[in-house]
Each structure stands twice: as C-alpha cells, then as structure tokens.
C-alpha cells in the first residue's frame, strides 16, 4: 500500500496546482481514483494480515476515511470544472487536498504500527506533505496577489 500512498500526494499537489487550469482536473481525478482503488485492495490485505487485530481495524478505518476524503476532493474538482472562476470553490478544493494529504499520513502511521519497517516511508511522506501544504498556501496567496513584492516584481515573473 505504501507505493500507492506516495502517488496520492503528487496527484493532490497537481490538483491544487490545476486550480488555474480546471480542464486538467478530470484526468487527475480519474488517475487519483484508480490509485485509491489499488490502495484500497492492498490496504484490505494489509489489514487482514496485521497483528494485533486492532492494528488491522485501524488500517481499514483510515483507508476508508482517506476514501471519503478522495470523494470530496473529486466532487470539488468537478464543481470547479463547472464554474472555473469561483474563488470559493478553488479554496475548498485546496482545503480538501490538504485534508486528504493529512489522511494519507494517518494511513501511513497505521501501516507503520503494523510494520516497523515503514518508518522511513512515514518520515518521507510527512516531509512531502508539509512541503505540499506550504506550496499550496504560497500558490494560493501568490495567485490571489496578496504577497507583497519587494521590488515591483510579479508572481508571474517568478512562476
């Protein structure tokens, strides 16, 4: 399941980046759905073989919560495609992406509890999640034009 978990934050980042190009969201949502499907199958196997049984339940629950987060994210992507200029929907999409990234970290921690060898993966995923969240926030503020330039340069100059 860990392989699929590393792909999901990449798609969330691409989704939030695609706020400026909503026509790309459909393909990204489809790919994310496929990746989550693979994760769900692998997560079911990991939960069935986890010891103790409580860890298996935790893996199953967190994978389901991630699935619900993915559903909301896909819904927001669809809403943004319908109305690509709606800034409220853009913010909601970014918030959903951030929430899903957090749920990915929770799935990883559940997997780590069942398998001590995934600690390096969890550390890397947490670092990636933090970077993605920081980039999302910066992109959102820069796109909105609320960051103050020091020497009259625009965000587009550096993008």
UniProtKB/TrEMBL annotation:
<dbReference type="Pfam" id="PF08913">
    <property type="entry name" value="VBS"/>
</dbReference>
<dbReference type="InterPro" id="IPR015009">
    <property type="entry name" value="Vinculin-bd_dom"/>
</dbReference>
<dbReference type="GO" id="GO:0005737">
    <property type="term" value="C:cytoplasm"/>
</dbReference>
<protein>
    <submittedName>
        <fullName>TLN2 protein</fullName>
    </submittedName>
</protein>
<dbReference type="GO" id="GO:0005886">
    <property type="term" value="C:plasma membrane"/>
</dbReference>
<feature type="signal peptide">
    <location>
        <begin position="1"/>
        <end position="18"/>
    </location>
</feature>
<feature type="domain" description="Vinculin-binding site-containing">
    <location>
        <begin position="15"/>
        <end position="116"/>
    </location>
</feature>
<keyword id="KW-0963">Cytoplasm</keyword>
<dbReference type="GO" id="GO:0005178">
    <property type="term" value="F:integrin binding"/>
</dbReference>
<dbReference type="InterPro" id="IPR036723">
    <property type="entry name" value="Alpha-catenin/vinculin-like_sf"/>
</dbReference>
<keyword id="KW-0732">Signal</keyword>
<dbReference type="GO" id="GO:0098609">
    <property type="term" value="P:cell-cell adhesion"/>
</dbReference>
<dbReference type="GO" id="GO:0005925">
    <property type="term" value="C:focal adhesion"/>
</dbReference>
<dbReference type="GO" id="GO:0051015">
    <property type="term" value="F:actin filament binding"/>
</dbReference>
<dbReference type="GO" id="GO:0030036">
    <property type="term" value="P:actin cytoskeleton organization"/>
</dbReference>
